[in-house]
Amino acid sequence: MTVSSGAPSTPSTSPSLFDRLTGRGRPARPDHAVVVLHDVTKRYPNGKEALKDVDLVVPEGDFVFLVGPSGAGKSTLMKLLIRDELATQGDVVIDGFDLARIRRRQVPKIRRKIGIVFQDFKLLPRKTVWENVAFALEVTGTPRRQIRPAVDRVLALVGLTGQAKQLPDQLSGGEQQRTAIARALVHDPRIIIADEPTGNLDPIISWEIIQLLLRINELGVTILMATHDAQVVTALRKRVVALEDGRIIRDETGAAYHRED
Amino acid sequence: MIPFVLFSMKRAWQGFWRNALMSLAATLTMVLMLSLLAGFFILQNVLLASLAFVEQKVEVVAYVERTATDGQVETLIANTEAMPQVASVEFISRDAALERFKATQEAQGRTDLSQYLESNPLYASINVKLTSPTQLEAVTSALREDPIVRNVLNIQALVDRVLTVTSVVRTAGVAMVGIVGLIVLFIIVNTIRLAVVARAEEIEIMRLVGASDAFIRWPFVFEGALVGLLGAVITLGLLYAGSEPLGQAMVSFFNVLPLELGSVGRDTAILVTATGVGLGVLGSWLSVRTYLIR
Question: Which of A10, A225, B24, B83 has the most crowded CB, counting CB atoms within 10 A?
Fold first, then answer.
């Protein structure tokens, strides 16, 4: 049995998030596609086709809203991206790695390129904010001396330095989601996948979270956000990918939540 | 590798205490199951010792001709002792046989009839103890061939019956311990599974932040081992505390049978510890496997 060592996740050619934070980095490369789905079909063992012939290319640094009714295939798409499920047909390529071809042992390393944020936060209730964020590094074998500065920096980025010692149930919903975003960021990911991150939050707090995601996007991190929040999508005029019945029915840049023609 | 092991042990320790209720429930189940197993194991040992005691009672008695000389008798004894199936040989002279007869009569409260005898009517005999009652046939026929042996008591039918009974009881004992072992296996593995499932979300998060299988699995495996070890230690403590009064009771109960249970204590300790730790590890390993990368 091999055990992944404490080495940093992947030697990346592009500067780290922290370099970019401190102004030393260079912007994301829009010519580099971090997510490529080609002719992807996902059929579950029960015969249900959750995705049909999906083509999607996301350049590095993009901000993409994934919209569509429940059951349209958004969750399946996200599961494919983190290789929680494998595509029945077609290719899923993350940062140049074909997920169907990589070895099982490499899956965790791919996942560290992706930060995931959920509607229900998924924080560990017995751990403080600081410990929740550090947890992501601990369980991937990061040496202790690297954990402390990394956690402190992401907490500063999301504005939770003062709440570091609190437990999740002492926080507001917005603060809990910011903790989850900090945890997603601490591996210095190339992509953030956010599944309805504002679904449990009131509108003002939702905007705070969106602002935070926009800021992270400006630092060069690609963002893929599934949402039902029409107001937010329409206001921001970002790229919108609409799914229905497992197919992409619309893929427009600078678009609104609903079709506008 | 060493930092990883330390990390896993630390996480196991934390996991145990942060989910104290679940951990203690699992440990308690472990204690109950291990006690059950240990109880049956000790019972089985008492049973086996009793059977061995009964089987030891099987003795081949060969009567020696009166005409036999001392030299012939000594040769016979030496030859018999040399047989691999023989445990010990005792020579009962004619006088000794008469003494024994008188003693038994007196013990039964009967009149000593031997005083009416003019001479000792009894034969000298050699009483042969066997290493195993199954060797009866070989020893009996060997003795019969010796010219100074007058006759050998035929106890084949009796021995066969004893052997049937003991083998049935032995098989039943083994089956019983086997069944209890299986019950213990399923209950412990299931209890550990419950403790792991209760933390499915934690495992889910570990997976999503990119923890490798080893980092997910080993802390749980160590935690399972910890539950097993703790359960075993508590069980052995209880058994040790109970062994003194129980032992006394057993000694007075089995007064007649001087049983030899020399290594049962050590064997029980090994069995309980190995079962506890082994099943703790197995339970965790199997339960976590469900959550690892497909």
Answer: A225
